[in-house]
Amino acid sequence: MSDAPRDGVDFAALYDAHPDYVARRDATSYERQLVDLEVQHFKLPHLVALLRGQPLASVVEVGCATGELIAAFPLADPCGRRLGLDISPRNIAAARARFDHVEFQAGDFRQLTLPRFDAVLLSDVLEHVSDDAAFLADAAKLAPRVLVNLPLEDNWLNRGRAYGPADVSGHLRRYTLAQGLDLVARAGLQPTDWSRVWIHETPAESLRRALRARHFGHAYAGGPVGRRVRQAVFALATAVRPVGRALFASNLFVLAQRP
């Protein structure tokens, strides 16, 4: 993400102080363990699957936050290069302290002198930037292959959500599937493979519930009545797939390149 203030917002400062990222810097936190779980059991498997066995010797991640994904990304060469970039100095400091086998740099990648890589990775980033297509196009200059993970939040539970810098996750907008694929095209890229996945339909969901139960004593949030309601709704959503897919957000995983 760019560290230049846009629309009066200093995004570097925003993500330095954002509660989600502050929590992820704490080794004992639920948020740290949740992101580790989601990287290992959801994001990484679906991103790597798009490569279909293509070997990578070097990968750069733009918007790496606290570094979990780039640190885990597999390379054909054990001595290959992994570089994580983020505008938040505090997130980068936490990533360096945790993952000493990965290079990290703080700053706007468009203002850094960087080599070419085999692939550039953007995971849960484009919904945070105001110039999403231009940002993706600039990132694509770093490598011949571009891997994108984009949340698709045009679902029932997000219909009333107020997107913008003050959003609970800092998302500036929501995407439909068509808008996500159009974003790739507007960036001048051509998808070579893509998949749409609902996390509640994957093994990662039961692991997330178990993690919540270990930390908070309950697999679902809220008081006793709220937990029962959420459990019933989730049971319906998993039993009736169209209901679950309308209710919950999904993720678009894309491998793209320049035509």
Give a structural overview.
This protein has 259 residues and is of the alpha/beta class. The protein has two domains: 196 residues, Vaccinia Virus protein VP39 (Rossmann fold, 3-Layer(aba) Sandwich), CATH 3.40.50.150; 39 residues, no CATH class. It has ten helices and seven strands. A seven-stranded mixed beta sheet has the order 3-2-1-4-5-7-6, with helices on both faces. The longest helix is centred in the first third of the chain and has 22 residues. The protein is globular, with a radius of gyration of 18 Å. The N terminus is likely disordered.
Number of helices: 10
What pattern of helices and strands is seen along the backbone? HHHEHEHEEHEHEHHHE
End-to-end C-alpha gap: 25 Å
Strand order of the largest sheet: 3-2-1-4-5-7-6
CATH topology of the largest domain: Rossmann fold
The fraction of residues in strands falls at 15-25%
Could you say how many structural domains there are in total? 2
Largest sheet: 7 strands, mixed
Low-confidence stretches: 1-6
Helix-and-strand structural type: alpha/beta
Q: What would the average pLDDT be, to the nearest integer?
A: 94
The helical percent reads: 40-55%
Q: What Rg do the Cα atoms give?
A: 18 Å
CATH superfamily caption of the largest domain? Vaccinia Virus protein VP39
- The second-level CATH architecture of the largest domain is 3-Layer(aba) Sandwich
Instruction: Write down the CATH class of the largest domain.
Output: Alpha Beta
**Gross morphology:** globular
* Extended strand count: 7
